[in-house]
Design brief:
By secondary structure, the protein is of the alpha+beta class. The protein folds into two domains: 51 residues; 151 residues, Glucose Permease (Domain IIA), CATH 2.70.70. Helices cover 22% and strands 35% of the residues. The strands form three sheets. It has an eight-stranded antiparallel beta sheet. The radius of gyration is 20 Å and the shape is elongated.
Length: 223
């Protein structure tokens, strides 16, 4: 199993902390606790460490390129499909699809379209529960806009949640990016909003599970 680079330091530090905790338990067990608790605590600490390792797993996925489709940027479940007015950059009505990621999902983020990054901004903010309606505008987040070869501007937003407090984005303005290339990572549960032209054909519904870089969210209108 390949581990994403964002997890290397966290895995090492947490492993060291768990080892120190277990060593302290082992040191005091002969005087204060029995061997049963020693084994139980060791199993719990090791299981929790394995969970942290699994969180940063990096799957192998087939790269799909289709200019007519906009793909899910992450694993998770669709929680919002609605027309909203985008006020930060595009200044027009857009169809928003929001995907919630639980702590058990893969947390790598893939670019839903290919093109040139024309806008990027990091916003510090609050840490409301990720499915809260105000999380898209009040939580810590990044906003990225990619202009496709067909001239469509697609906006996607990484949103931190109650647990996730570290958003990583690898893109910068002017950078070319291919569809379904990895563009970032969100640590420990959150959501991503994708804003597309409102006349797109919606291919998912609220409650649908989606897989990053594999599940098409919408089909762009033919012009």
């Amino acid at each position: 199993m390949k581990i994403n680079k964002e997890g290397h330091r966290i895995i090492a530090v947490s492993g060291l902390i768990f080892l120190v905790l277990w060593s302290l338990i082992y040191y005091f067990q002969s005087h204060h606790i029995g061997s049963g608790l020693l084994i139980t605590s060791g199993v719990i600490l090791f299981a929790f460490w394995l969970f942290i390792i699994a969180f940063f797993r990096e799957p192998r996925r087939v790269k799909i390129h289709d200019e007519e489709l906009i793909f899910s940027p992450c694993d998770g479940r669709v929680v919002v499909t609605e027309v909203v007015h985008e006020d930060e950059y595009l200044q027009k009505e857009m169809l928003q699809i929001s995907i919630f990621m639980s702590v058990t999902n893969i947390h790598m983020n893939w670019s839903p379209v290919g093109g040139i990054v024309e806008y990027f901004k990091y916003h510090p903010g609050r840490f409301l529960i990720a499915w809260h309606p105000k999380s898209s505008t009040e939580n810590e987040r990044t906003t990225t806009v990619v202009k496709t070869d067909k001239g469509e501007s697609i906006l996607f937003r990484q949103v931190a949640g109650l647990i996730a407090r570290r958003i990583v984005s690898y893109v910068k303005v002017g950078q070319p990016i291919k569809q379904n290339d990895v563009f970032g990572f969100i640590k420990f549960g959150s959501r991503i909003d994708v804003l597309v032209p409102k006349d797109c054909e919606l291919l998912v519904e609220i409650g649908d599970p989606v897989k990053g870089s594999q599940t098409p969210l919408v089909r762009l209108p033919k012009k």
